[in-house]
Amino acid sequence: MSFVEELNSSHVHMKDPQYVDKIIKQMVQDGHEKLQVVADFDRTLSKYSNKGKICSTCHNVMEESKVMPDSYKEKAKAYRDKYFPIEIDHSLTIDEKIPKMIEWWTNAHALIKSVHMTQTDVTEMVQESSAQLRDNCQWFIDHLSKLEIPLLIFSAGIGDIIEEVIKQQSNMYNNMKIVSNYMDFDKNGKMQGFKGDIIHIYNKNENAIHSSDYFQRLKHRENLLLLGDSLGDLRMAEGAEFTQELKIGFLNHKVEESLELYKANFDIVIVQDESLNVVNAITRTILNLPKSD
Questions:
Q1: Is the pLDDT assigned to residue 51 strictly greater than 90?
Q2: Tell me, what CATH number does 246's domain have?
Q3: What share of the chain is helix, strand, coil (3-state, %, to 5)?
Q4: pLDDT class for 292, splitting at 50, 70, 90?
């Protein structure tokens, strides 16, 4: 039995509960000054489903929008139908998947560029979409901000859409940094393409954030909470050194065939949960906050 009550729930799985308790206790002892958080966005901070209905990812926001032409939606769906089964195929190695992921993202970005959307379109698309932050994500974002705990959101999605979802449903704070695929708009607000290199689901350890001084500047924050929903997310902080690291994985679908794999790679696996309640309970414990807060 864990001393964090929510970790004893039937939908929470751990390979080594004693190890998890040990890490959390050390983080409590070290205090919030040593903590930082790295999180994926789609289906990690945002919901996989809401009351049985699948919610939009960043890319789905565009596919379901009346702003986008039918020709875009048809091609985007064809790409997803072709490449998504490869992304989640556990019989393939990550190295085998990477060329196909690059293909998918390159094609998808070229397709988005061809539509010539505007910044105003992005706001409208998010407003009408089914993209939703997890229940009680607001608490998590607010409390990390209050204590100035750095939150790096690392996503293979669309940075502009992530920002818009957070602004519309929560708050963007100074302690937050988003690393993602950002659109490049001209002075009239029309999209010209994408900035920088492609970030896909399996190259989160190769992006510019790892060659920048981000992790170096936070070297004194040697305790890491890492949140993700895919094995590729485990690479988000690769190369940075941490004394204590707690890896929390959300397993949203294909539970029976994926649970053992997730348990082998994440310290904590949260199954089919629309909220951030388990993560909040861990965070509240580390920050030594009362349950009423």
A1: no
A2: 3.40.50.1000
A3: 45, 20, 35
A4: confident
Active-site residue set: 40, 42
Judge if 139 and 41 occupy the same domain.
Answer: yes
| Of 109, 127, 145, the domain-final residue | 127
**Number of H-type helices and E-type strands within the chain:** 11, 11
CB burial of residue 53 (10 Å; 0-12, 13-18, 19+):
exposed
In a domain, 74, yes or no: yes
Same domain, 69 and 87: yes
Tens-digit pLDDT profile for residues 16-25: 999 999 999 9
In order of 44, 86, 232, 259, 280, the CA distances from 95 in angstroms are: 23, 12, 11, 22, 34
Residue 291 domain flag: no
Q: Which residues of 9-43 are buried (b: 16+ CB within 10 A; e: fewer)?
A: eeebbbeebeebbebbeebeebebebbbbbbbbbb
Give the count of domains, the chain.
Answer: 2
* Position 202 confidence tier, pLDDT thresholds 50, 70, 90: confident
Partnered with residue 228 across adjacent β-strands are: 249
Question: Model-level pTM?
Answer: 0.94
Number of Cβ within a 10 Å radius of residue 77: 12
